[in-house]
Amino acid sequence: MQVQLNARQQHILWATVRHYIATAEPVGSKALVEEYNLGVSSATIRNTMGVLEKVGLLYQPHISAGRVPSDSGYRIYVDQLISPSEILAKQVEQVFHERLKWEDWSIEALLQGAAQILATVSGCITLITMPQTTTTQLRHLQLVQLETGKAMLIVVTDSYETHSAVMELPAPQDAPLDAEAVERELQILSNFLNTHLRGRSLSEIANLNWNQLDREFQRYGDVLKSFLGELSRRKLPAGTQIMIRGVSEVLRQPEFAELQQVQTIIHLLEEEQHQLWPLIFEEREGEYGKHRVSVRIGSENPLQPIRMCTLISSTYRRGEVPVGSVGVLGPTRMDYETAIAVVEAAADYLSEALS
C-alpha cells in the first residue's frame, strides 16, 4: 500500500507505534502529549490520528478506546521510520564472541548456543535452520561390508551429521572375492574417496566427472554417484531442520492470552516445521529496503497460526553462499529496532563462524 505521509503524520505514527509497543494499551492523544515532545496540541494529534486511521495505518479496537497500529502501520514504521540499533548489534555480536566457542564446537552446538542467546536478548521465539544439505561439505566417508554383495555407505558432514545407506556392490569383473578381500578393497576405496572428496560440497560431489577417478574403482562410480546425488537432494528430517528457543517467554505476552492461539502456534512449531522452512530460509533481495532482513508482519504471513505475529529472519552464509537462516517470531507489537538489529548481528556472527 502506497501512503504518502507528511512529517507531522510520520512523527505521530512513530510515537503511536512506540507507545503501543511499550504499553500494549490503545494509544490516545493525551498519552502522546505527555510522553513525547511532538510540539503540537492534543487536538492536532487527535485529528492527525484520525487521518492515519482513515488511510488504514491505525484502528480503534473499541469505539471509546485509543488507537492501535494496523499491519500496514507497522509496515511503514519498519520501512520508513526506524533504523536498527547499531550499538545493540555490536553488543550482541560481542556476547556471541564471548559465550560461543565456534573453533571448538560442532555446528549444531554453535547454533543451539546462538539460538538461546538470541531468544534471551530479543524476548521472542528464535528459529535457526541447520545448514542446507546442498552446501554441506563431506568430512568423512566409510564403506562397511555387510552380507555378501552388500555394503553400507556412511557419510559424515562438516556439521557432524551422519547419513547412511545400504548399497548393492557391483559384481567383480574376474573371480568372486572372499569376505576379507572385499573388506580390504572397501577400506582402500574409502581411503581413496576421502582423499579425493573430503571438503567438497555434496552438490559438487554429485556432479563430479567420475571418469576422472582411478580406473581401479571405476565400477563403483555409478553406485556412489547415484547415492551421493540423492543425498545432495535429501532434506534433513523435519524435527532437526529448525532449532527453536524462547517459546515460554514470548507466550507470556498479552497477545497470547487465549489458549487456542497458543496451541495453534505450538503445534506449528512442533509438528509442522516444514511449513515454516520456506518462510525463514528465503532471500528476497531488495524487498526490505535498508534492512538486510525479511520482515513479515501479521497478515503478510501466509500461515494462519502466525497471522498475529511478526517473523523477522536473515540468512547466514558460508562464503558467498547462503546456507541457513536465523529469525525471531513474536507479536506484531514487538521492539522492531531491537529485533532487526539482533537478527542481523546473529546472521553476521554465524556467517563469520562458518567461513
From TrEMBL:
It comes from the Bacteria. Residues 108-340 form the Heat-inducible transcription repressor HrcA C-terminal domain. InterPro entries: GAF-like_dom_sf, HrcA, HrcA_C, WH-like_DNA-bd_sf, WH_DNA-bd_sf, WHTH_transcript_rep_HrcA_IDD. Gene3D superfamilies: 3.30.450.40, Heat-inducible transcription repressor hrca homolog, domain 3, Winged helix-like DNA-binding domain superfamily/Winged helix DNA-binding domain. It holds the Pfam family HrcA. Keywords: Repressor, Stress response, Transcription, Transcription regulation. The keyword Membrane does not apply. One of its GO terms (biological process) is negative regulation of DNA-templated transcription. GO terms for molecular function: DNA binding. Belongs to the HrcA family. Negative regulator of class I heat shock genes (grpE-dnaK-dnaJ and groELS operons). Prevents heat-shock induction of these operons. NCBIfam families: hrcA. This is Heat-inducible transcription repressor HrcA.
